[in-house]
Specification:
The chain is an alpha+beta fold. It contains 2 helices and 4 strands, in the order αββββα. It has a two-stranded antiparallel ribbon. A two-stranded antiparallel ribbon has the order 2-3. A hairpin with a 4-residue loop joins strand 2 and strand 3. The protein is elongated and about 55 Å long.
């Protein structure tokens, strides 16, 4: 939501509604980004997104071992 909601009044209301959902899962708590020294908000997801990402990863692994879509010649970026 940090990426999509800029309104300071709307954001806390939406976040409260999201966190009330029984499907909301916290991935990480609030922290300090040691590289920048900036505060990093907690990160949340839902079981459906975890399933979706796991399926995408499974398919990527499957395709990486497939020979159905190979590149036959080197691709050059030069004209």
């Amino acid at each position: 939501m940090h990426r999509y909601v800029d309104d300071a009044e709307t954001f806390p209301r939406l976040m409260a509604r999201v966190l009330q959902s029984p499907d909301a899962l916290r991935l990480e708590g609030e922290s300090i980004d040691f590289a920048t020294g900036m505060w990093a908000p907690a990160k949340y997801t839902a079981p459906e997104l975890i399933r979706l990402e796991a399926e995408m990863a499974r398919r990527a692994v499957h395709l990486s071992g497939s020979t159905a879509f190979t590149i036959k010649a080197p691709v050059s970026s030069r004209p």
